[in-house]
Amino acid sequence: MHRLYENDDIAVFWNSDKCFHAKRCVHGSPKTFDPKRKPWIDVRRAETKEIWQAISECPSGALSCIYRHNIDVVMDDENCRSIALDGEKIIGECDYQVTEQGWNIYHTGVGPEYGGKGIARRLVYKVIEQAERSCAEIGASCSYARKVLDE
Ligand code: SF4
Questions:
Q1: Which residues does residue 107 pair with via DSSP β-bridges, in sequence order?
Q2: pLDDT 10s digits, 107-150
Q3: Looking at the whole model, is its pTM more than 0.85?
Q4: Of the residues 67, 89, 122, which one is the last residue of a structural domain?
Q5: Residue 48 is part of which domain span?
Q6: Is the CB of 12 inside a 6 Å radius of any atom of ligand 1?
Q7: Ligand 1, residues 15, 21, 36, 37: which to mutate, most atoms within 8 A of Cβ?
Q8: 40 and 18, same structural domain?
Q9: For residue 133, what are the contacts with CB-CB under 8 A and spacing of at least 6?
Q10: Within this chain, do residues 115 and 84 fall inside the same structural domain, yes or no?
């Protein structure tokens, strides 16, 4: 299971397949990581510095985080894609097709001037998360998205 959590500063990625529940994150930021709560991660409950430090101590790589750079990433279900927005301007997208076999991500792209900010990974995670929430199989013919799925 893949999940993306965001606050005003950071985007947090969680891959449950890698998590072996060592709970270092829980000890590092108990308000953020609470196994008794649903969802168990809430990145608006503690200071970004504390969350970042807790994530850096995750031994499995299940958790990772990056700065948001004031770029929003949202679903655009009508057009089968997630999009990245700099204000009103679309600066990146991750496109998928819905087939009988499930969802297939076939393209991920971010404007060259926005490279190196982790936006493409956020876009892909957003689509994976949405597919999983819809109980759809998710695959990728886009090589970048394939890499994120295999991480
Ligand atoms: S520290 Fe990492 S491996 Fe441990 S519970 Fe948290 S996410 Fe899972």
A1: 95
A2: 999 999 999 999 999 999 999 999 999 999 999 999 999 999 99
A3: yes
A4: 67
A5: 2-67
A6: no
A7: 21
A8: yes
A9: none
A10: yes
